[in-house]
Amino acid sequence: xxxxxxxxxxxxxxxxxxxxxxxxxxxxxxxxxxxxxxxxxxxxxxxxxxxxxxxxxxxxxxxxxxxxxxxxxxxxxxxxxxxxxxxxxxxxxxxxxxxxxxxxxxxxxxxxxxxxxxxxxxxxxxxxxxxxxxxxxxxxxxxxxxxxxxxxxxxxxxxxxxxxxxxxxxxxxxxxxxxxxxxxxxxxxxxxxxxxxxxxxxxxxxxxxxxxxxxxxxxxxxxxxxxxxxxxxxxxxxxxxxxx
Length: 244
Description:
The protein is of the alpha/beta class. It is built from ten helices and eight strands.
């Protein structure tokens, strides 16, 4: 069986993985989720100095201090950035890396590079006006839905997500990923694509073409951008299949 380390995306904590982790354990796996600095129950640990390097260290320290081996490291959305950094540092502890509705980052890349300039400017205004200059509040769902599918998030799930979400340390978006940004050559590479991302992958976007080729293995899920909330058991089944 596999040891899964589940890393949540922006505004989320380990809580977001609870149902998927439980389903993985029913498959016989070890499933451990972590909260990154400045978020959820660790909100008070964050500050203006919290950045991408902080979150990379959170992941590598979690794996090393728990002496985990043959790890499957799972990144949701934003977590693709710190997981890419951690994957390049974990050496032979890492067996597999899985990106859930996200993709690995190249060295020198940052989260803001994925957004148009006007969106970057608006985020900066939100941070200045409502985040004490270093925290990014979770946008309203009507704004999130413009770039990320809300499929599968009914009113109850949206209310729960809104209630438990915490502002994201903005340094994790502005700092560029330093190398190394590649796991070892023997590490299994897996992509879990939800509805909108499937369209990008199938639409021939040049910068994503490598994800449709070996050594990458792709699994599709018919749900929106937060599958650990909208299709938690189905996501666990996909992760189980990827590890089998």
